[in-house]
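Kindly review both lines to help learners:
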Amino acid sequence: MLEPFVFVGILLLVGLFLAVVMIGVPWLFRPKRPNPYKQELYECGLQPHGEAWVQFKDQYYLFALAFLVFDVEAVFLFPWALVYNQVQAYALLEGVLFVLLLGAGLVYVWRKGALEWM
């Protein structure tokens, strides 16, 4: 009964073992000579200035999220387009509905102002 899952368990154990080894071995053999120069922050070759916590507009997050949603949803259209000639009428209606939902989402995001960059 559990025989098919033995392979999955062995694969999981090997994966966990390799992850621990790949993190643990470099940690064991790393040089342990800290000094102030090594502890210093590095920012593109320049001395950092100001606070590390800089506020930025949430609009960038919304723009990226909208891009991700539409990009992933557009990927779903490619398999549908490949079998377009072999599908029946209801599949065509489902595709049109999907594109209409994408369009409605685009209009919503556009009216919310998430596509305005600055």
The chain has a mean pLDDT of 82. The longest helix spans residues 3-29. The radius of gyration is 26 Å. The domain at 3-112 is CATH 1.20.58.1610 (Methane Monooxygenase Hydroxylase; Chain G, domain 1).
